[in-house]
């Protein structure tokens, strides 16, 4: 369902299998969380994470086929809500991960798949094909509170938020850059991954303290982190080369 590979201080998380759609069912969600936990436990100063995917899709969102396979409408709804609950900690894991994170969107990213991409610090997208698309309006389901909080946190332009959520537009690479959904668009899938790896390596060379990075990230998005139940740590000190230096980790969620 997904794999994690360590290249020096760079972690590569790859979504695999499931007919290349990478639909977020309980199995894939658990696999993603396991990979993120492994990256977090093995990280050293200067680590960074790049998330990539195989095939036509980055992720096509929640596995509605798995939900509908429950039989009745009420059972299918229960399964959908179960996936919504299971996916929320994935967003929280990425927001609390002690390293910079980059999503290389080399295929379609729809609904929860788009939210998975936008949970990263940086989103790079291929420009030749593939779309980002919030499909909930078209298929007739409402949004979880943490989805809307994530969009408000990551998309500054109210018109862009409206078009994504209230027009259900399918956004391609260059348009996504213009709307502020992604940081850059690249010629194709290979170029997108290469650019994401370069960015990860560039950020890693700064040798930032991962704990400090994560706490500043949480402080940057207080509404989202409040919805996710993430709290910031108190200020702490550390000793370096015989000197005491303060880590001012107090700008977080109360």
UniProtKB/TrEMBL annotation:
GO terms for biological process: fatty acid beta-oxidation. Keywords: Lipid metabolism. Pfam families: ECH_1 (PF00378). GO terms for molecular function: delta(3)-delta(2)-enoyl-CoA isomerase activity. Pathway: Lipid metabolism; fatty acid beta-oxidation. Its EC number is 5.3.3.8. InterPro entries: ClpP/crotonase-like_dom_sf, Enoyl-CoA_hydra/iso. GO terms for cellular component: peroxisome. CDD domains: crotonase-like. It catalyses: a (3E)-enoyl-CoA = a 4-saturated (2E)-enoyl-CoA; a (3Z)-enoyl-CoA = a 4-saturated (2E)-enoyl-CoA. Gene3D superfamilies: 2-enoyl-CoA Hydratase, Chain A, domain 1. Belongs to the enoyl-CoA hydratase/isomerase family. This is Delta(3)-Delta(2)-enoyl-CoA isomerase. It comes from Escallonia rubra. The lineage of its organism: Eukaryota, Viridiplantae, Streptophyta, Embryophyta, Tracheophyta.
